[in-house]
Design a protein that fits this description.
Structural class: mainly beta
Radius of gyration: 23 Å
Number of helices: 4
Number of domains: 2
Order of helices and strands: HEEEEHEEHEEEEEEEEEEHEEEEEEEE
Strand content: 35-45%
CATH class of the largest domain: Mainly Beta
CATH topology of the largest domain: Jelly Rolls
């Protein structure tokens, strides 16, 4: 009887483990609420690089023309989303209308990362580089300016819908025919990127990357795209193979397990950037930290343009933390992390993302308006 009970208990334990593994696998592949459209492509597929499931855009828009990019570019780009485009030779305003998943299905997540991707690649055989506007509803989102037919453009915004649908519109400004390669919408948790404004993407940097590769889904559950950046020769890399306890922002472990530090422990850690084309744009900054050195005393002050943003900051060992701030308008920006007198180690920074504030004042309109 004892042996029978042992076998029975083993089987129950095995089934329990299988359920845990199945649940973990489901969690690792959680694309609930994701909308991934390969624009102009006639059918859907699973992306070979990310595992993201892309659909054709045919059910989301009733205008436009499908094209493949020029043959000389078709073998040059690894991303499947760039093989087709949808162009809009007719009408001033052409819109994708996308149903927002019910809140019951996305928990407390009612804000979204919206991303448009554009690769011209001479799809029309005219070698004519267009410029056009993007709108969300009737609010201006951004301008797409194609400077090089072989260089893809990416536009992103963090946006809270005013209704139960999201409307993304391409606007003909008489500077060429609008087009789009891919449209991606990702639900975010309301506990992150908390502002009363929409946030227009500027940069998202993975500092001191150990692989010099960009990271997105599945490393990032929200499918944010992190670009590798080395600051300059005055910095060095701090790294760990240990697991970083994530914060509510859920940055990828591979992003947070490296950080930039000054080579000279007496120096500040400095990062600079220029303003956008619109000098009145106001920046919102998100600084992501995790201490990678055990039993350390690392304390520093955080300044932007010599104005204190956060004083006596001490990152937690192997715990991700995020500090945010709204910055004064300037033509250039200088982020300085300065060690305090009682710090035994220089400052560090693991990752940063920057946005400009985009105030949206109008309600959305019907997708037939303005056509």
């Amino acid at each position: 009887m004892a042996n029978c009970m042992t076998i029975f208990q083993f089987l129950i334990h095995l089934i329990f483990l299988q359920l845990i593994l199945a649940h973990a696998q489901q969690q690792d592949d959680d694309q609930s609420g994701f909308i991934s459209l390969d624009c102009g492509r006639p059918n859907g597929y699973t992306d070979r690089d990310t595992g993201l499931r892309y659909n054709s855009d045919y059910d989301f828009i009733d205008s436009g023309v499908s094209h493949m990019i020029a043959p000389e570019y078709q073998s040059k780009f690894l991303y499947q989303q760039f093989l087709y485009v949808r162009s809009f030779p007719k009408g001033t305003r052409n819109c994708y209308t996308l149903k927002v998943p019910p809140k019951a299905n996305v928990g407390s997540r009612s804000k979204f990362l919206i991303r448009g991707r554009f690769l011209y690649a001479n799809y029309d055989n005219n070698h004519s580089l267009p410029s056009f506007d993007l709108q969300i509803g009737v609010d201006l989102w951004d301008r797409v300016q194609i400077y090089n037919e072989s260089v893809p453009i990416r536009k992103e915004i963090i946006y809270v819908p005013k209704s139960d649908f999201i409307q993304v519109c391409l606007i003909n400004t008489n500077s060429g025919i609008p087009f789009i390669s891919a449209l991606e919408i990702r639900p975010l948790n309301n506990t992150i990127y908390r502002t009363k404004y929409s946030l227009n993407y500027y940069q998202r940097w993975d500092l001191a990357s150990s692989t010099n590769s960009l990271y997105r889904y599945k490393d990032d559950v929200y499918d944010r795209i992190w670009l590798p950046v080395d600051l300059d020769d005055s910095t060095s890399t701090l790294a760990t193979t240990s697991r970083i306890m994530p914060s509510e922002y859920q940055l990828p472990n591979v992003v947070m397990n490296t950080a930039s530090v000054p080579k000279n422990p007496n120096d500040s850690l400095v990062l600079t950037w220029d303003s956008t084309n619109n000098i009145t744009d106001q920046f919102y900054i998100y600084l992501h930290f995790a201490e990678l050195t055990p039993n350390s005393t690392r304390i520093f002050d955080i300044y932007v343009n010599e104005k204190l943003l956060f004083g006596h900051y001490s990152p937690k060992y192997l715990h991700a933390q995020t500090t945010t701030g709204q910055l004064d308008v300037s033509s250039t920006y200088k982020l300085s992390l300065n060690a305090t007198k009682n710090s035994l180690l220089p400052p560090l920074l693991n990752a940063i993302d920057l946005y400009t504030i985009k105030q949206t004042l109008n309600s959305q309109t019907n997708d037939q308006d303005g056509k």
